[in-house]
Amino acid sequence: MSTLRNKVQLIGNLGNDPEIVNLESGKKLAKFSIATNETYKNNNGERVTDTQWHNVVAWGKTAEIVENYVSKGKEIAIEGKLTSRSYETKQGEKRYFTEILCSELLMLSK
């Protein structure tokens, strides 16, 4: 049960082409966002689609797969964990950012 403490599984579509960063250390980083859709009926019986956007990062071999095979609009399944970080803007404001650290990726689009 301890492996379920911080685990995320999502299926969604990429909103844009991934951003690939090659670090000086030789490591590769891929940043991208995916949209998940949930459909329900509101109080008036109308069908409503709720879209949520999720920021995802992938490192190493997973980032290489993203770079070579994943692009805007493609449907993918990811598994990973939630991570949070913060940074300070030039104006001195503290900003917080939550993203999914992708450990597994499955391409669903052809």
Question: What would you say this structure looks like, in words?
Answer:
By secondary structure, this protein is mainly β. It has a single domain, classed as Beta Barrel (OB fold (Dihydrolipoamide Acetyltransferase, E2P)). It is 9% helix and 60% strand. It has one helix and six strands, in the order ββββαββ. It has a five-stranded mixed barrel. A hairpin with a 5-residue loop joins strand 5 (75-88) and strand 6 (94-107). It comes from Leeuwenhoekiella polynyae. This is Single-stranded DNA-binding protein. Keywords: DNA-binding. GO terms for molecular function: single-stranded DNA binding. Homotetramer.
What is this structure, in a nutshell?
The chain is mainly beta and 110 residues long. Helix content is 9%, strand content 60%. A hairpin with a 5-residue loop joins strand 2 (19-22) and strand 3 (28-41).
The beta-strand count equals 6
What share of residues is helical?
under 10%
Integer-rounded radius of gyration = 16 Å
- The CATH architecture is Beta Barrel
Shape by Cα distribution = globular
Map the helices and strands.
Layout: E1 8-14, E2 19-22, E3 28-41, E4 47-59, H1 60-69, E5 75-88, E6 94-107
Parallel strand pairs: 4-6
Antiparallel strand pairs: 1-3, 1-5, 2-3, 3-4, 5-6
Keywords:
110 residues, 9% helix, OB fold (Dihydrolipoamide Acetyltransferase, E2P), five-stranded mixed beta barrel
